[in-house]
Amino acid sequence: MAKGQINVQTENIFPIIKQFLYSDQEIFLRELVSNATDATQKLKTLSNIGEVKGDIGETQMEVKVDEKAKTLTFSDRGIGMTEEEVDKYINQIAFSGAEEFLEKYKDKASVIGHFGLGFYSSFMVADKVEIFSKSYKEGSKAVKWECDGSPNFTLEEDDTRKERGTDIVLHISDDSKEYLGEHKIKELLDKYCKFMAVPIKFGTKEINDPEHEPKTTKDKDGKETKEDHRQITVDNIINNPEPAWTKMPADLSEEDYKNFYRELYPMNFEESLFHIHLNVDYPFNLTGILYFPKLKKNLEVQKDKIQLYSNQVFVTDSVEGIVPDFLTLLHGVIDSPDIPLNVSRSYLQADGNVKKISNYISKKVADKLEELFKKDRKAFESKWDDIKIFIEYGILSDEKFAKKAEKFMLYKNVDGEYFTADEYKTKIEVNQTDKNSKVVYLYSSDKDLQYSYIDAAKSKGYDVLLMDSPLTAHLVGKLEQADSNTTFTRVDGDTIDKLIQKDEEITSKLTEEDQNTLKPVFEEVVNKDTFTVNFVSLAETDAPMTVTQAEFMRRMKDMSAMGGGGMMGMGNMPDMYNLSVNSNHPLISKILGEKDEAKKKDMAKQAADLALLSQNLLKGEELSKFIKRSVSLI
Questions:
Q1: What's the CATH architecture for 512-548+575-633?
Q2: pTM of the full structure
Q3: 171: which of 13, 128, 499, 630 fits an S-S bond (Cβ 3.0–4.6 Å)?
Q4: 204-243, pLDDT tens digit by residue?
Q5: Alpha carbons 134 and 143: distance in angstroms, whole number
């Protein structure tokens, strides 16, 4: 029996493991299963190139919990190790078995990672670890390695092991007893090893015997009785070694993609809209499937739905900062051997390959959206309400995506018609260009709440867009920057005739003196801290009073509320409105001519309250008074 010290420059390996190598204790399970998978893949590679003779037999691995013995065991029938290899790859942890193997058999193997470092994560939960291993090489003897977490170890021959492969036995420490629970291990296997490339056995399960057909018998009275299905015990394989993203798109049906989505998100009962299958081998290796969920107006969706893998080994589902922010709204899987097997997000974010992959995915998503738009515009339009917030987010956060989005971004008007940017500009520029030669884009954020404004705009021949996402304030600013000859204004942002001034302006029936007489009357019936009274010259058929809000102020408040716009604190500022009085409406002239001051005030108050009511701004006591006053007037 050999004894010795592990070749590390410290008196204890725990500080290395617990402080520097991994951020989550439970990662040990992923690492040990990965190593077993790695050893099995190596064996398959050697068998394929003829270095291992004969049938290699069963290659699945197994995870076993023994609560009584306080052990957790990881068993594989992979390549195994000789005594010299155990000494090299376990005792001298500076070496990487995977790197050396890859160098020797490059272009022939898919290798997971660093065996030595990965193995040592087991000391995060165990106070003693044993290795029982037998190499595939002819004439090799089984060996046993044991270490209690100090730099001291023992290494000796082991007569008990007869078969090729390796068992890693963790003697779980008292402060990690949770890892002796089958439910806990099942949970971690499902999280980290769901798509490992080698079948993983975890216990057994009872199923109906497929080869036994239940018989139907009759009693003496002719009554039929059917016997129960015969139950048999089989291995419980907890993973899918061949997930959809590892296959070629041509080999998958639409139903296969749907089934895989359900496999990824068994608790998500809503189908995805469509998918993008990623498959590239230059300038880096990348496979994966991304799904578009139905987003509607919800930006607060869970951003942990994209799972990052490296050769089918789970890395993280916290991909913010690793992929462009807008892509985190998607669901699915990204797998690349060029992604380092490291759970530190800051490390991943700084990695050059990760940045290249991020840019590629963004381009691929844009290309797919353009393809869908060109292939079937009607189908694309039918999905627009579900995906527009994703596209808007991409336009705002990714310049390259924004440029590509010009080909498939749509405008939707309040009548449910869809237009590309060029189509819509052509539609409105003749009728909606102001004196400064800017094309005015009118939009509504709520068709019901802003109905009267929409109706007024349409009656004058103007078109109104429906822009009701939480990103609208940011988006319209971005679109204005992209084209300095356009301006966006919410339909209730100002009186329409003031927004789109024509050569022929309507003359006011009220003199300046009349307006000065009426202004204090209206100022008295509204809150001066909230409303500014002004007079506008509109048609007699237009509303007597209109409540509007300055586009700039509302836009800044909306952006501040969303966490942007550069106007800190504006989201908490009180709303300010304009009460625009139509100087040509008969009611305003009637109020001006009323001699009874009390009646004049009541008429002004009633007219102002009607304008406020149309915008849902009349509440509480003021609303109650309005109702009583209305009943009295009737």
A1: Up-down Bundle (1.20)
A2: 0.75
A3: 128
A4: 988 887 777 777 777 777 777 777 777 888 899 999 999 9
A5: 6
